[in-house]
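User: Sequence recovery, please. Input:
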């Protein structure tokens, strides 16, 4: 098997060039998918026969919760890549993704509380799903804090990678908490392996929102990584050439 594509990720210049091509497309896809999904879900989707219009919070809550978990899985993968193959861009990705994942977790918890008040009669209950999501937020905070607390970049990268890998055990706990314990939180809204319980006009905008959130994550992640690459490689000749190129383009404009 040819692993050339994998080793290219060890080149900051190659990443900067290729990410510049992806960024506009991911941004456009995020705007279109989230825009269509949000309007469809909040305005045109029919109300739920039990929850009425309060169910519409899922169009924000579910994509945010899914992305929060997926983002942490990405942190763990980046941690393994950084520790095993010593690819420094893995640490860049880890550090850039952690704040995004933390914000998605906050959004999931807040929207869950807004939904829980009329449904359960309480903003917060120590439910297994809610508690494990709160632990996920603390894990994100831990990764972010470690990245800023340790001055040596290599040591910080190793510490963050280890925490990300160890903390990934919380992801299956979040996913299966509603099956392993008797919880108030409902099961999965829809699964890829099963036919959705809700009608197509309700789950299709939810799917669009989930895809839009992933595109948004990709766009913001690439943007943050590009800025961090420029910061870390500021003394490299290719960065200086890039700056000269950008200054020249601005002068032409």
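Assistant: Recovered sequence (253 residues):
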């Amino acid at each position: 098997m040819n692993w050339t594509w994998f080793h290219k990720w060890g080149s900051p210049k190659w990443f900067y060039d290729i990410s510049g091509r992806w960024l506009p497309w991911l941004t456009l896809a995020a705007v279109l998918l989230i825009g269509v999904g949000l309007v469809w879900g909040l305005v045109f989707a029919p109300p739920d026969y039990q929850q009425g219009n309060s169910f519409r919070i899922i169009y924000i809550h579910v994509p945010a919760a899914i992305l929060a978990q997926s983002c942490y899985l990405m942190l763990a993968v980046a941690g393994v890549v950084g520790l095993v193959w010593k690819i420094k861009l893995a640490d860049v990705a880890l550090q850039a993704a952690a704040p995004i994942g933390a914000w998605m977790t906050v959004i999931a918890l807040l929207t869950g509380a807004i939904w829980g008040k009329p449904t359960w009669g309480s903003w917060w209950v120590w439910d297994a799903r809610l508690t494990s999501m709160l632990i996920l937020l603390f894990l994100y905070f831990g990764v972010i804090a470690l990245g800023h607390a340790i001055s040596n970049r290599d040591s910080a990268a190793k510490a963050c990678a280890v925490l990300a890998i160890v903390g990934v055990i919380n992801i299956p706990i979040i996913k299966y908490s509603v099956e392993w314990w008797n919880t108030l939180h409902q099961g999965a809204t829809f699964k890829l392996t099963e036919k959705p319980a809700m009608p197509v006009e309700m789950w299709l905008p939810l799917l669009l929102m989930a895809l839009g959130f992933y595109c948004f994550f990709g766009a913001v992640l690439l943007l943050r990584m590009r800025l961090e690459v420029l910061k870390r490689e500021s003394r490299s000749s290719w960065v200086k050439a890039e700056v000269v190129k950008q200054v020249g383009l601005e002068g032409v404009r």
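The first helix runs from residue 4 to 7.
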